[in-house]
Write a structure and sequence with these properties.
Low-confidence stretches: none
Number of strands: 4
Number of domains: 1
Mean pLDDT: 88
Oligomer: single chain
Radius of gyration: 12 Å
Order of helices and strands: EEHEE
Helix content: under 10%
Number of helices: 1
Distance between the termini: 44 Å
Structural class: mainly beta
Strand order of the largest sheet: 3-1-2-4
Amino acid sequence: MPFKIYKIYPTNYTFGYDTFDSAIVIADSTKEASNIHPCTGKPLNKNNTSNYGWPTSLDQITVEHIGYSTATHPGVILASYNAGK
């Protein structure tokens, strides 16, 4: 079964400088997609206070299925980052 492509973004979140606002990721499921950090491609670190403005709770992330991929492993395709001044 092919991997799926998802758009992930924080739900009800205020963006500022030096923060991620969304990402396109490859994952097996919506749960796996919501657990991918846009910067590292690794699972969220709930104890990390420096997540570049990305939520640390899965229920604060919206996931939209947008397609399918022939990739062989999950990860980040593209991330949107709002660089500082």
